[in-house]
């Protein structure tokens, strides 16, 4: 059973790496949102199961991904939208830290909702606008 799980994880990682090498910047950002949401979901499950080590690892990974999203903002040219996203990403990281410290799934649920909302807007960008940027 363990060997099959290990092989499946290796297959998934290889698929993700292959997708990253051909993905455009828009798709890479989508993948960051997906990765953060996946890690938050696993962390919520880990809290429910009392697996504190896994919870901490996945929350840290989610915070790192949000940090990448934040770092990709162009604050000089992005205007008010970039500034608002910067503040929101900062808030998300702080709330995840709170959820981690308190073993509380509520902040994780809140941040997952915010990420899904931003991702939905990102996903709705028309193809012609994606190519223009």
Automatic annotation (TrEMBL):
Protein name as it appears in the record: Flagellar secretion chaperone FliS
Broad class of the protein's primary localization: cytoplasm
Gene Ontology annotations for the cellular component aspect, listed alphabetically: cytosol
Family recorded in the similarity comment: Belongs to the FliS family.
Location in the cell: Cytoplasm, Cytosol
Taxonomic classification: Bacteria, Pseudomonadati, Pseudomonadota, Gammaproteobacteria, Chromatiales
Pfam families: FliS
Gene3D superfamilies according to UniProt: Flagellar protein FliS
Sorted UniProt keywords: Bacterial flagellum biogenesis, Cell projection, Chaperone, Cilium, Cytoplasm, Flagellum
Top-rank taxon, per record: Bacteria
Annotated SUPFAM superfamilies: Flagellar export chaperone FliS (SSF101116)
GO biological process, one term: bacterial-type flagellum assembly
